[in-house]
Amino acid sequence: MELRDLIVGGIAGLLVLVLFFEILRGMLTKNAKGAWDAHTGTVGKLRARGFVYRREQPDLNRYLFGKGVFVGCLFPGKNLSARECVRKKDIPEWRSALTDVGETAYLIFTLAIPQAGDGSEAELPEMLFVPVSDTEGKWKPAAGALSVGEKLLGGRFGQWLGTLRGVSGVHTVGEHLTLIIPGQVFGKDYDALLLRAEEAAVAALPAIPKELRNGQ
Question: Tens digit of pLDDT for each residue in 25-81?
Fold first, then answer.
């Protein structure tokens, strides 16, 4: 083979290689731009509906519950950060965030239980309820004030727990009621997901017994 043929062949091979990498770069850029546009669109949709959005917070518990609330049985032993943090502009205690535990992303949604008509406020002990895996609609207290949790299961609160689907945990502390929902992503229907979580949490409010409110 002549030297000229070797040179021509080498140039042709180089051009093919350059073309391949240009196509690959274009595909990656397009995918990244598409993901960015989708994320930006979801954020814009949330803000248009009156939500406040922040990309991340370093401390999940502090973001959800505030500085003065000690939380011991919501993902115990893990110092978790929060991402895709969303709250209602007019209700500071209405908060949500995604957090990653291992390979699973969880939506954590918390709602402060409002004052009752008589002015009393909820004072719930810290408790964590989880579903009994082999029994549909059955729950059990897994951590915290277990005796109080067992008592709650026998009343309206236990009935409310039995209506939940797709929820892997319910946490209470002070005035806060929190839902733990696994396997969630920040996508175009995220606002609808948050509103469904809110609806589920609000349904629990009438089930909070009077004896767990101050002044009772």
Answer: 655 544 434 444 778 888 888 888 888 898 899 999 999 998 888 888 888 778 899
List the one residue out of 94, 83, 39, 36 whose CA is nearest residue 58.
83
- Contact predicate 64/108, CB 8 Å: yes
Cβ neighbours for 122, distance < 8 A, ≥ 6 positions apart: 113, 174, 175, 208, 212, 213
- What gap in Å lies between CA 23 and CA 38, rounded to an integer? 22
CA–CA dist 86, 49 (Å, integer): 11
What are the distances in angstroms from CA 127 to CA 27, 130, 145, 173, 194?
48, 10, 6, 7, 22
